[in-house]
Amino acid sequence: MHARKKARCVAAALTMLSLCSIQACSQQKVQCSGEAQCGDGNGRNADAKKAAELEVATVTAEIKAGVSGEQGRVGETPEKESGLRAVHIYLTAGNLGDRPALISKATITFEKSGYLKPCYGIGGDLLSTATYSFTIPDDQPRGEGGLLHKTPFSMTKDLTHEIPPNKYEKFTLTVGPKTIPDGGSPWFGVTYVTLHRDTGEEVKVGPIAVVNSGGNPAFYPEFDKNAWHIEQETFSGCTKENADLVASVMKIPKLTPSTEFASLHKALQEYR
Question: Is the pTM of this model over 0.85?
Fold first, then answer.
């Protein structure tokens, strides 16, 4: 009986001590310095702000004027050209966080790249060159037959583009082969684009199928009609091979075709 009474006294004493400690703590003035310790005024610590996070909301591609280059005949001094037509890839990237996101570089990876088969006995000594965000050099290694590049291969370009918090920004990238020979067939590519943040975060989008205008007066896109001009082939069965190639690309899952690639596929259907 004496032991139980002693235990109750000890418990009561501990309870009183705890209450006193809580009351003493509540009466203390908390000292803080700066937003990091005192918070942002909304009851949260500044370090709790949501880190920048990237997403690509939309991607489209088309041939459009806007790149610079040179044009001239073999053996002559080329003349400067501006407003040349080229493949443009448009990306709308968003920053979902509360802090700025700095895009430090972009990488384009080619899963397919090369030239459609030349179906016409047309050529000349006129050469056009252009400079793009991503320029495929003339000596890019090619596979057997010389029309298709060895893939995959990648190119990276440094950028300095900051996306504000909770904002979306549009990126424009141009791509194509350095030289377009007179009478040359259109170049095509199937690509992925990766945007890199300075923090190491990456966001990848694709696949994207694109095609340029080439340099052949018998085979080229008609921009005002969203169609292609395709004349009677010189080499029998050649256009069908191009039609089969384009159709195989269009079957790639989750593909985003450029405006001209989609219209080329439509125009070639009658040759299959």
Answer: no
The region of weakest confidence among 116-130, 156-170, 176-190 is 116-130
Q: Where are the strands (E) in the chain, listed by range?
A: 54-73, 79-95, 101-115, 126-130, 134-136, 153-163, 167-177, 179-181, 187-197, 202-211, 219-222, 227-230, 256-257
Helix (H, G, I), strand (E, B) or coil at 52: coil
CA 68 to CA 83: how far, in whole Å? Answer: 6
Write down the residue that tokens 């009851």 correspond to.
Answer: 43
DSSP symbols for 67-85: EEEEEEETTSPPEEEEEEE
Over the stretch 94-146, which tens digit does the pLDDT of each residue have?
999 999 999 999 999 999 999 999 999 877 778 899 999 999 999 999 998 99
With helix as H, strand as E and coil as C, how does 215-237 read? CECCEEEECCCCEEEECCCCCCC
> How confident is the model over 40-92, as pLDDT tens digits?
444 444 444 566 688 999 999 999 999 999 988 888 888 998 999 999 999 99
CB count within 10 Å of CB 11 equals: 10
List of E strands, 74-125: 79-95, 101-115
Q: Give me Rg for the CA atoms of the chain.
A: 31
What does the pLDDT read at residue 90? 98
Q: What angle do CA 190, 203, 101 make, to 5 degrees?
A: 135
